[in-house]
C-alpha cells in the first residue's frame, strides 16, 4: 500500500497547499472570488466580462475594384485583375494615363510607339547628351532637336540587305556647325542662299571637281 503525503498549512482562514492541485476526474473548483492580484485564479464571471468587448476576428473579406476572389468567409485567394497597373511583367494597359512627373524608361529596348504628339499643342523637344540641362526658351510650335554633335540621319539603299555597313549617313549642324549630305540635294522650290565666302567655296570645289574629271579623260 502506497502512502501519499500532502503538505498543508493552515493560518486563520487560509489553507496553503505546497504543490499542485490535480483533479483526477471531472470536477470544479467553486467559490473563486474576484481576482485582485496578478497571481490570483479567475472565476468564469470575471473572464466572461473581460472578453465580452473583444472582437472575435474578421469573419469575411470582400473585394472591390481591381481585386477579385471575394467575398471570402473561410479560405480563398485574392488576386489583382487586369485593371491594376503592375510593377513588373507584360501587361496591356488601356485608357489615357496622365503622368504629372517625369516618366523614366531605363530599359535598353527603348520606347516603342507609332506616334508622338505635343502636350498642349505647342513645342516638341528632343534632347541628347547634356542638352537637357541647357536648352531654354523653346516654346514655339516647332520640333526642337538639341544635340552637342548635331543630328545624324541614316538610311539604307537596299532595305538593309547590306546591313548597317551599307547605310547612307547625313549629318546636319555638327559641333562645328557644318552639314554633310550622303548624296545630292534637290530643291523643288525656292532658293538656296549662300554667303560670299560660301559662293567662293562652291566655285573652288566645282573647279576641283572639273579638274579631276579632266585628268580621267
What this model shows, in words?
The chain is an alpha+beta fold. The protein has a domain at 8-51. Helix content is 13%, strand content 14%. It is built from two helices and eight strands, in the order E-E-H-E-E-E-E-E-E-H. The protein has a two-stranded antiparallel sheet. Strands 3-4 form a two-stranded antiparallel sheet. It is rod-shaped, with a radius of gyration of 44 Å. It starts with 7 loop residues before the first strand and ends with a helix. The mean pLDDT is 83.
- Gross morphology is rod-shaped
Number of helices in the DSSP assignment? 2
**What is the terminal separation in angstroms?**
140 Å
How does the major sheet shape up?
2 strands, antiparallel
CA-based gyration radius: 44 Å
Order of adjacent strands in the largest pleated sheet = 1-2
Q: Fraction of residues in helices?
A: 10-25%
Low-confidence residue ranges: none
What share of residues are in beta strands?
A: 5-15%
Q: SSE string, helix = H, strand = E? A: EEHEEEEEEH
| Annotation, overall tally of beta strands | 8
User: Mean pLDDT, nearest integer?
Assistant: 83
Secondary structure class reads alpha+beta
